[in-house]
Amino acid sequence: MTPLPRAFALGEIAERFGLELKGDPAKPIRGVSTLASAADDQIGFLANPRYRSQLATTAAAAVIVGPKDASEADGRQTSLLVAGEPYVAFARVASLFEHERPPAPGIHPTAVTAESAHIAATASIGPHCVIEDGAVIEEGAVIGPHCAIGPDCVVGTQSRLSARVVLVGRVRLGRRVLVHPGAVIGADGFGLAFDRDHWIKVPQLGGVVIGDDCEIGANTTIDRGALEDTVLEEDVRLDNQIQIAHNVRIGAHTAIAGCAAIAGSSRIGRYCLIGGGAGIIGHLTIADRVTITAMSLVTHSIREPGEYSSGTPIQESRLWRRNAARFKHLDQLARHVADKNKGHPHE
Amino acid sequence: MTPLPRAFALGEIAERFGLELKGDPAKPIRGVSTLASAADDQIGFLANPRYRSQLATTAAAAVIVGPKDASEADGRQTSLLVAGEPYVAFARVASLFEHERPPAPGIHPTAVTAESAHIAATASIGPHCVIEDGAVIEEGAVIGPHCAIGPDCVVGTQSRLSARVVLVGRVRLGRRVLVHPGAVIGADGFGLAFDRDHWIKVPQLGGVVIGDDCEIGANTTIDRGALEDTVLEEDVRLDNQIQIAHNVRIGAHTAIAGCAAIAGSSRIGRYCLIGGGAGIIGHLTIADRVTITAMSLVTHSIREPGEYSSGTPIQESRLWRRNAARFKHLDQLARHVADKNKGHPHE
Amino acid sequence: MTPLPRAFALGEIAERFGLELKGDPAKPIRGVSTLASAADDQIGFLANPRYRSQLATTAAAAVIVGPKDASEADGRQTSLLVAGEPYVAFARVASLFEHERPPAPGIHPTAVTAESAHIAATASIGPHCVIEDGAVIEEGAVIGPHCAIGPDCVVGTQSRLSARVVLVGRVRLGRRVLVHPGAVIGADGFGLAFDRDHWIKVPQLGGVVIGDDCEIGANTTIDRGALEDTVLEEDVRLDNQIQIAHNVRIGAHTAIAGCAAIAGSSRIGRYCLIGGGAGIIGHLTIADRVTITAMSLVTHSIREPGEYSSGTPIQESRLWRRNAARFKHLDQLARHVADKNKGHPHE
């Protein structure tokens, strides 16, 4: 039987996270939830205006709200925790209720570790891991089951490889980096030279450098550089199934959604947001604070902050087919309209 | 040397699957094949009209056909097995010739299993698996090599994890679920809150629930929910390299082709067909029996059954470039045409 | 401490690779680099004209250039190595400085190998590998950590599976095939038949055949055929996260960039170039020497060599939204223009 989760008093939570409390400080809190599903010992939050109507009906013990919603909600029965940024406050409160059991330090007996590897005493190496020559696992790092850490790779302090992560070679992870299962970091970049009638492989001699506080999603791949390194600056957040090619550089605090791909040698700025499935071709430069919407393809450098898109809207296929057929002759259509214009000088 | 495959009499096959036989019931059958390549001890099928002409030339011992093709084929030499749904009948017949050797029950000595895990006596745990605290492996389940089953995960009766599957945490698979290699189920959803100048991680406290008879393709990822669960109802079929974000719900009998991606909290109906590489952004609702064609992007909810598309047709790049350049000014073109119209009130 | 890399005399390098040297043959060379970062014991190269200005400023000991750049660079201080194809020459020279330590032959004691598997004496089987019944590992093949080689699979002479590769079943790799981590070859194709109200699985009875000198990227998936084999001819180069569905055939020397996907039974020609994220729907035929640009979707067969594209250009979202809205009525716009034309018979 699962034991009852630990309870915190609502007032204790307000104090710990610097939130203004409107309500009963003694109320016991055992978890977090959505407004729609919360029980009366759980905290909900309101960050997205589309859920505002749920404030009247939620059974939550308390709701984290912004100052504006707090004033409008006066007189309601539920307790309120008022925060400048309700979603940030919620993230902090929710972390109280995470039940991750950090594994004990030490090396599992089934792990295979090279004698020349340096593994800190406080690090944890899970079952069936392989740690190769010269690899360095720093203090407090957690290497989950089935990870392979290639020659001379470094896993920084407090970093965590959830399970089945491969660092192939010449990979350096900073501190507090979190890598999800299936990620492959440091495989050969896709470097080919065409020699008359066949391909020859271009050696990939660079590495990968991942800054502090980065997160790398499940089954994401980050290739090592051809000559210099592939680089993620600090606090870069990559979702699942992303492909980062060789020699890409991603600026600090940029977040990229699932299935996006960045081709070789492109440089992405800081504080960018790249939508799911978006593509950026090679050798481009993207400025800071650029947003690319989902499934857009970037084919030239972007020098100005702002939001960029490509593609066409979804439609019933029956209608879409007609429009798509016209797209194939759009240039002709535009020429035709322009020509008619020219033919009517009085217009 | 591979032994000769087991033979079935054609009449025995007809009877077993309730098919009408026009031909020799004693004919021995040792396998299935395409019409073009079949040998005279193999059964072919005709489901796609584009292959109809091969009916005249195939060397197959028998061909599974629909009633219409059966009547038109009268007088041909090849035997016929008549089925209402020839492709369904073929799938059933073909299963006679699968030579999967189910692994013996028991736990491989190289597997690492927590004492608190519950592993049914008829389950099979392959080499180098890791089964963590509180995990439950039900009767007849097969866990192939290199799988990691996280704390408190459940693998239902007769389910099969082919090889190297990770269930990270709070994952429940129903009965007869088939998961292909490299799939990662239950990794953290991509939840981030922006705190002035950096990201903070939003704890992902939900789980994943996979219904009976689902199939999950190779290297597909299904994240666990932020607060509630990510859910696949029964008989959902996912191809390879699909990304299902946190809190998505997919209705029963929906099939999704390779490389599609569904962003957080979207709800997909029952009996939907999502094409390869298609994207669905977050917080949408898609009705039952909706088809999305390959590489389309869905940016708003779809309330009506039917087929939907986006994108433009493939063209020679030389032509495409001209049309694409015009797309950048399509609104101007449309305004221009509309203005001219207004200027000609007699039209 | 890393030992100083081995040095080669510049003249020795010129001779070994048949390059014309303009400069000091005694100059010691310890590595390769970009023009911008090279030290004076490193060789750079100039293949992309956009970097030509760096020829005047590089600190490289020597630069590999084409004949045209060589004549224009006369009088400069840096030594030159003149090559017909500078990038090909660079690839060869760079390979001198790769420091891959090939693993020793033999089977790691943690590997689990079936008695009926045939493993050549010169092959290397890494830690925690699983080699199943009837598998064949030929001379000089290297199977890195955490690989699983399914029943009756063949890994050809000198092939290398970097780490954590799964060959599921009925997979034959030729000679000198290189497979990167996370690749899954030979999983079931996505074959489903719809039986009134639910899906039934169509057995996938074919295999996968990979030709000599192919390269398969990280987390790429190649499904086995339904009845016949999925085939990659020789020297096919696949980047990361590519999906190759069942019964696809890819012609020799074709290269495919990351995240592309090819649906079932399509046949791709020889010497094709498929861009990143591109999609090819099922049952198509693509001629030899076809180039598909990034994220294009191919929906019909292509009979002529050449370059093909689909999609729309990236724009500021503010402008894109207006144009995209017009696309939804493009057919009406075109009809309207055509109608007006008809109304003006004098034009």
From TrEMBL, chains A, B, C:
Pathway: Bacterial outer membrane biogenesis; LPS lipid A biosynthesis. It catalyses: a UDP-3-O-[(3R)-3-hydroxyacyl]-alpha-D-glucosamine + a (3R)-hydroxyacyl-[ACP] = a UDP-2-N,3-O-bis[(3R)-3-hydroxyacyl]-alpha-D-glucosamine + holo-[ACP] + H(+). Residues 28-95 form the UDP-3-O-[3-hydroxymyristoyl] glucosamine N-acyltransferase non-repeat region domain. One of its GO terms (molecular function) is N-acyltransferase activity. InterPro entries: Hexapep, LpxD, Trimer_LpxA-like_sf, UDP_GlcNAc_AcTrfase_non-rep. Gene3D superfamilies: 1.20.5.170, Hexapeptide repeat proteins (2.160.10.10), MurE/MurF, N-terminal domain (3.40.1390.10). The active site is at 246 (proton acceptor). One of its GO terms (biological process) is lipid A biosynthetic process. Keywords: Acyltransferase, Lipid A biosynthesis, Lipid biosynthesis, Lipid metabolism, Repeat, Transferase. Its EC number is 2.3.1.191. It is an enzyme of class 2 (transferase). The keyword Lipid metabolism applies. CDD domains: LbH_LpxD (cd03352). Pfam families: Hexapep, LpxD. GO terms for cellular component: membrane. Belongs to the transferase hexapeptide repeat family. LpxD subfamily. NCBIfam families: lipid_A_lpxD, PRK00892.1. Homotrimer. This is UDP-3-O-acylglucosamine N-acyltransferase. It comes from Dokdonella immobilis.
